[in-house]
Amino acid sequence: MVNCPPLKMTTMKFEVSATLAYEAVGSSSLLLTIQPFPSKEQTILSESFLTTPALTMQELFSPSNEKRVKVLEVAEAGTFTIHYTGKVANEIKEIPGEELADVFIPLMPASVLPYLNPSRYCQSDKLYKFAFNKFGAMEHAFDKVNAICDWIHRNIEYSAGFSTSQTSAFDTITEQVGVCRDFAHLGVALCRALTIPARYFSGYAYKLNPPDFHACFEAYLGGHWIIFDATRLVPLNGLVKVATGLDAAETAIASSFGNLNLQTIEVKITSLDADFQPISPTVSSHGYSYS
Amino acid sequence: MVNCPPLKMTTMKFEVSATLAYEAVGSSSLLLTIQPFPSKEQTILSESFLTTPALTMQELFSPSNEKRVKVLEVAEAGTFTIHYTGKVANEIKEIPGEELADVFIPLMPASVLPYLNPSRYCQSDKLYKFAFNKFGAMEHAFDKVNAICDWIHRNIEYSAGFSTSQTSAFDTITEQVGVCRDFAHLGVALCRALTIPARYFSGYAYKLNPPDFHACFEAYLGGHWIIFDATRLVPLNGLVKVATGLDAAETAIASSFGNLNLQTIEVKITSLDADFQPISPTVSSHGYSYS
Amino acid sequence: MVNCPPLKMTTMKFEVSATLAYEAVGSSSLLLTIQPFPSKEQTILSESFLTTPALTMQELFSPSNEKRVKVLEVAEAGTFTIHYTGKVANEIKEIPGEELADVFIPLMPASVLPYLNPSRYCQSDKLYKFAFNKFGAMEHAFDKVNAICDWIHRNIEYSAGFSTSQTSAFDTITEQVGVCRDFAHLGVALCRALTIPARYFSGYAYKLNPPDFHACFEAYLGGHWIIFDATRLVPLNGLVKVATGLDAAETAIASSFGNLNLQTIEVKITSLDADFQPISPTVSSHGYSYS
Amino acid sequence: MVNCPPLKMTTMKFEVSATLAYEAVGSSSLLLTIQPFPSKEQTILSESFLTTPALTMQELFSPSNEKRVKVLEVAEAGTFTIHYTGKVANEIKEIPGEELADVFIPLMPASVLPYLNPSRYCQSDKLYKFAFNKFGAMEHAFDKVNAICDWIHRNIEYSAGFSTSQTSAFDTITEQVGVCRDFAHLGVALCRALTIPARYFSGYAYKLNPPDFHACFEAYLGGHWIIFDATRLVPLNGLVKVATGLDAAETAIASSFGNLNLQTIEVKITSLDADFQPISPTVSSHGYSYS
Predict the structure, then answer these.
(1) In this complex, do C65 and D106 lie within 8 Å of one another by their Cβ atoms?
(2) Where do runs of H (alpha helix) occur along chain B?
(3) Using the 8-state DSSP alphabet, how is residue C98 labeled?
């Protein structure tokens, strides 16, 4: 937006892999969003996407969303396996918190405005008063989002088996239990309720235990998409972006059409750096951006 | 998709206008999506967008959404008026119903896939069984969407004052009352629950009584976005497209930030054709597309 | 209400039993409603209620609700087992459908009026239009309730694993899948939406497969509480009433306070009649009452 | 429960009146619960219940609920007016907070147990974690309920026009705005989620401004039904009990069947005591009971 001194940049290298085994009961289609998203900030050094047996497949790359989708045709019943592996080099920018102010609505790019709207799992339109009462008194947008993450971290129990694929931010705010997906939805919804654009971030996460795909969120502050993780389970610079979008509906790892059962899934990520220096996910005086 | 005989095309000309009066209690921003969307099929012949008093304003044109957004800055308290007027020439294609079949998922363009997802007001993920039980036995996708519109028209009462800005398809399907927005959300949600991409359509509607902005929906059939209006209040060829999107959240006529009160709104549309021949919104053997 | 010819009465005899095994993690309380309800129409011939090890216990008998509650004190951690067994003789009245008309509100007894209200799982206040649109045109109340059961039976899939303890009639009407509890809640809610008092019925059910506690509902018609079972899984005269109430919240088989885990439950019912003649749960020209 | 020193008792005298004007579009029934409830603690000194024109009417007095219901038959279309006026003497007991402990479940009377269940507008089953996280760490039940009222008072905005007759505690806890009915529902739901029996209280309220029927709630503590009013709008000893029940569904001021429109309602209450000494509704070291 304005002339800034050069930002501090950290670069990382990761190797990621995902292996999914399916049983098809009949002919089906499968959309997978499991590959790291290539961008100026994240380079795919090498990758392979294999299916056993070989399946008809194509790749969709949407100009407006940050994701790559593999579309697989499963012609007949049977079991099949997908194995993706890739190496990526990515970078994360450090930005002083005081630069991460609210962006004036008339100055927001068209591509950012959709992230002010309520979505399936982030009903920000039902959270205006809650968000305003809890966080509205703060002056600075970066402080607000940090306070949101703090509040989520203190009030929502991280525990599997309570929330389902239909659980939304409006449920989680009261039921107070969920997994990373639910933490991210609630963070997104509260930001939007405060007129801060926010989007869901899906990716690989270094040191996540047990290993799995992870979800967190980005808020648009000071002209940057700043990463936040209210679960605080992984270092902020341990993420490999797979997709961003309105919420989990738009960034689903796998969407199947027809009669498919996921049987196993195995996710791995290793650091290729000799000395990985973790950036703590707790509140700091700086924000971090993958974009 | 395949070699087709030339489709029958109808061309229309309309003059539309919208006048909105606001009271600003303090400095605010206002996003308006009230201008017809320019495209190959819809030409803006002339238009003017005036505010009294003059306001700082800019236009956003999102490449991936079909809408134009005017962003207005309201610097201080006071009343102001927006007056838009435009003339458009648009066309509607007639396509034989038998060509409007399901599109195989792996053949869908990337731009269409988002319209399979559930959204804020169209929770298709909660309607699978309902949609399958009611409409799943039909063979042909065009018949399914026609049956959806029939079902909505027969079961939902068109009446203002019952639904609110938070009402969603999941409410309307049971509460059975609503306005055009609710009819459109339910149509969209039921299509998506049947794996038919569908999107919300917002526009001007000729012969709508009383005059107002109108909402209906488009389903993606046989490679075309086919228009459907379960309210059956206006001729299918009486529409001027303002925006399409996931649902009303993404295509809102007006979104205000700050402290703004809409005081009056007046919408007009007149046909500039000597003899406008209405296409009935009831089920026919053909589909119609504005795209 | 008026002078009637003697109604046809069928008498049955059943032996029922329920065995529940719990693990207490610490001191707890347990409320059990598993014993048949004694009344003029249902005689407890013999029964035993045993716990292993012996627990402090008392019985509550609420004058206004039809249920008996055993309140157990579990002083310390450990496992324990409850074994109930009883023999009952009960009777069911057959009443010609034409006598089962709407009861005029000012003539309803005070004890019946609460069953017009919406309750936790039966939000009749959200179903007025739906109920009126589907069933409002019928003249006779008995026909309406039969049509409700027919509609539920045809539209809701009986299947475990989809609904939870939080599922309500408002969910089931759209999600269209559930178990006996959900079928009963929906029947109750639709009756109340039509101003027909209705209550949840919990009991043992002969020939239910696999054996378990069962739920159905009663509607207040012509001055009688008439039994309806939209699941149609058991003969209407195969029921032993355990409790009636507003919904499952008020008639729960077991409510635990503290830290208790139900480990196994086994329910049995056998007919003690030489030749049990089943009354079909499908629509007939007569209604049947256990009250 | 145990031997106590005589409790401090305050006695009050009030004159109350309610005037309701209706328009009947056709024959209808009307259930009114507007008369003070007679009990050992509340004596009806005099009263009159008049309708203009005269209507067929009867009174229901439910043994298990604390309410009187007038059932009116409206034979034909037209307007009519109800005018109730009464004088009551009632008393309120002051009980030291330290006696207001949790009651052990096995010691609860049968009549109290229903008030542990979730109900239509008080879905305590969805608030367990929230209630436990916020209030679970406190030792004493009286402190918990006081903290609940404090939290509601601080977090929920008292404002008409946002909530509707369908708004429930689950909505209010997040939407954070409502009227006395919503405050009471939320208080009830949070108590029940903590295994504290709680019930809705409907009545006349001295010094309520503008005058109207009021709602607050009672929690069962130390064997007493203790009154709480999270709105803090009126003195605790300014209430005249009309009804208690599960929630607003069971204690509705007016329920109409048929086609009735309420046109005006006017409620009045005056103190007949020479020097009314208000008891503050804010947290004190004592609890107060009308039962």
Answers:
(1) no
(2) 128-135, 141-155, 169-175, 180-193
(3) G
Which residues make Cβ contacts (< 8 Å) with residue D49, sequence separation at least 6? Answer: D35, D57, D70, D82, D83, D84
Instruction: Convert the pLDDT of each residue in D2-33 to its tens digit.
Output: 555 667 899 999 999 999 999 999 999 999 99
D173: three-class secondary structure by DSSP: helix
> Read out DSSP for A146-209?
HHHHHHHHHHSEE-TTS--TT--HHHHHHH-EE-HHHHHHHHHHHHHHTT--EEEEEEEETT-S
Q: What is the Cα B27 distance to its own chain's centre?
A: 31
Three-state SS for D5?
coil
Q: Neighbouring chains of D at 3+ CB pairs within 8 Å?
A: A, C
Total-model pTM: 0.86
Chain B contact probe: residue of A27, A66, A119, A166 with most B CBs at under 10 A: A119
Rounded-to-integer distance, Cα A270 and Cα A266, Å:
14
Burial bucket for residue B257 (CB in 10 Å: 0-12, 13-18, 19+): middle
Q: Is the pLDDT of residue C2 over 80?
A: no
Residue D86 corresponds to which tokens in the numbers above?
């009464």
Partners of chain B (3+ Cβ pairs below 8 A)? A, C
- Say if residues C263 and C256 touch (Cβ distance below 8 Å): no
Numbered residues of chain A with Cβ closer than 8 Å to any chain B Cβ: 29, 31, 56, 58, 60-65, 69, 71-73, 104-106, 109-111, 113-114, 116-120, 123, 125-126, 165-166, 195, 246, 249-250, 255, 257
Extract the tokens encoding C168.
Answer: 């309500």
Residue B52 bridge partners (DSSP)? B81
Of D118, D119, D195, the CB nearest to C257: D195
Residues D276, D280, D281: CA angle, nearest 5 degrees: 125
ipTM above 0.95, yes or no: no
Angstrom distances, CA of residue C20 to CA of A40, A198, C255, C265, C271: 62, 50, 13, 4, 22
Location of structure tokens 């919208």: B18
Spans of chain D, pLDDT less than 50: 1
Count of CB atoms situated within 10 Å of the CB of D157: 12
Q: Where are the beta strands (DSSP E) in D97-130?
A: none
User: What strands, in cross-sheet order, belong to the sheet with B68-74?
Assistant: B56-61, B68-74, B28-32, B254-257
Helix %, strand %, coil % of chain B (to 5):
20, 40, 35
